[in-house]
Write a structure and sequence with these properties.
This protein has 24 helices and 12 strands. By secondary structure, it is of the alpha+beta class. It has 3 domains: 226 residues, no CATH class; 167 residues, Lysozyme; 32 residues. Helix 21 packs across helix 23. It is globular. The two termini are 33 Å apart.
């Protein structure tokens, strides 16, 4: 064991060298969004282009990424699972196509709306009968005052209670009879009439807003609220992708704050419709692939196993295997230079190393792409927080032996497949200098997840972040490390 320690100790040299940190690089063209470097640092060098900034030429790619990056919640929360939901939604395809033709919209998008709103259940309710109900979750007030639907809230509520009692007593025929009566007094429960009402709404919204994508956004956000956002953005009929991706805390900050202030799914609603559309298409084209994807999406509380499936991702089983990865450059050190990187290493990182006869420095690194992403998150958060920082990184790469030691002491650590043992994951302490820093970090996490660049989950003491291999676009950040 002592011989192994001697072999592994060389890792500490790598860590020590990298703490003598400098940043260098050439300036990008004027007007190009950049990854910032800290003001006042003489060795900080020039910023590099930000690969995740809005680019009108890449708008279609951004939308595709957003559909993928927001899909996890649809898999995780679909009643009975995504495959069961697709079967329920598919029953209404003829009615969906008729309503889409009436509104002049893409039927696949309207079908995605049904998936997202009700999971294909015509009797779905959000709260009471005055709230959103039915296949397309229409509010009673909207149905009565905007869509011209017949809704008797009191009778609908009374029948809903009677339906519940009939179901409790397993009286299926009685429940079905009461449901027919309810559809007569509350047209939101009639799937065909609900879809027709939604078609009328989309027609109105498209006339007011001028675009199909904006009409669908408004279905959750509201036409008036979206018009306020568009006025703040200040451009005539922009695409929603432009409004969303071009708005950050320091660019169109008022728009970004308005979107964040909704506190619900309004800002990402369109991306989830696209995600639902893609799930429905996959269910028709390749049901087996949908089943495999659903298994990956629901394996953890985030989509991290979609990013790095167990059967296709190398892991480090022993300290020696991890040491060899360091030697090959497959793992690089996380520098402890908060003034430059906006990140600080927790002093306890690698504290269980002695239990596996390894130096702590072995557990203070990441895959190059994951390290670049950590540096990006540190830089962006610091910039949006007005220079406040740093974020504290509590954990990076592990091997299986170290993970086993951790699970014996920490009930939050997984006994199953951990992305820490692959070098693709790191944790950031939920300790912030201010509310502004916390909000800045939250924005960066949410934006990167929408872009399918990371998957993250909130744990009791830390934010666990898994990084996509697509983060290779950030590798120039490592070239700035000297």
């Amino acid at each position: 064991m002592r011989a192994r320690v001697a072999v592994l100790a060389g890792v500490l040299v790598v860590v020590a060298v990298l703490t003598a940190l400098a940043l260098r690089g050439d300036a990008p063209a004027p007007g190009v969004a950049v990854v910032p470097t800290p003001a006042g640092e003489p060795d900080a060098g020039q910023p590099i282009p930000d690969p995740f900034a809005y680019d009108p030429d890449e708008e279609d790619a951004l939308v595709r990424r957003a559909a993928t990056g927001t899909a996890h919640v649809l898999y995780a929360r679909s009643p009975g699972g995504a495959a069961a939901t697709t079967a329920r939604v598919a029953r209404w395809r003829p009615q969906v196509e008729a309503a889409a033709k009436q509104a002049g919209v893409d039927p696949d998008l309207l079908e995605g709306l049904v998936f997202l709103e009700s999971a294909g259940r015509e009797d779905a309710m959000a709260g009471d009968t005055e709230g959103a109900v039915g296949l397309t979750q229409i509010l009673a007030e909207t149905a009565q005052n905007l869509l011209g639907m017949h809704v008797d809230v009191r009778r609908s509520a009374r029948l809903t209670r009677r339906i519940g009692r009939a179901r409790q007593h397993a009286s299926l025929a009685r429940a079905q009879s009461l449901q027919r009566q309810r559809r007569a007094v509350d047209e939101r429960y009639d799937p065909t009439k609900a879809l027709a009402g939604t078609a009328r709404y989309l027609t109105i919204a498209r006339r007011e807003l001028g675009r199909e994508d904006l009409a669908f956004v408004s279905y959750h956000m509201g036409i008036g609220n979206l018009q306020d956002v568009l006025r703040a953005y200040g451009e005539e009929r922009p695409s929603y992708a432009r409004v969303y991706f071009d708005s950050t805390p320091d660019r169109h900050g008022d728009v970004q704050r308005r979107l964040a202030a909704f506190g619900d799914d309004s800002s990402t609603y369109l991306w989830k419709i696209y995600a639902a559309r893609d799930i429905m298409r996959l269910s028709r084209d390749d049901p087996a692939a949908l089943g495999r994807l659903e298994a990956l999406q629901t394996a953890k509380n985030s989509a991290e196993e979609v990013l790095h499936p167990l059967d296709r991702t190398p892991r480090f089983d022993t300290p020696l295997a991890l040491k060899l990865a360091w030697d090959d450059g497959a793992i690089r050190a996380l520098p402890n230079a908060p003034d430059i990187t906006g990140l600080a290493r927790d002093r306890r990182m690698g504290e269980l190393a002695q239990r596996v006869d390894a130096p702590p420095g072995l557990y203070r690194g990441l895959r190059p792409e994951a390290l670049a992403m950590a540096l990006y998150i540190g830089a962006q958060t610091r910039e949006y927080a007005g220079g406040q920082g740093p974020l504290i990184v509590t954990s990076t790469v592990r091997d299986t032996a170290y993970q086993q030691q951790l699970t014996s002491r920490n009930s939050e650590a997984t006994h199953n497949y951990s992305l820490h043992t692959t070098g693709w994951a790191f944790d950031v302490a939920r300790i912030y200098r201010s509310k502004r820093q916390a909000l800045a970090f939250q924005f960066v996490l949410d934006r990167l997840q929408v872009l399918d660049a990371i998957a993250w989950v909130r744990e009791p003491a830390a934010i666990h972040i898994a990084v996509s291999s697509d983060a290779k676009s950030l590798l120039p950040l490592l070239e700035r490390l000297g």
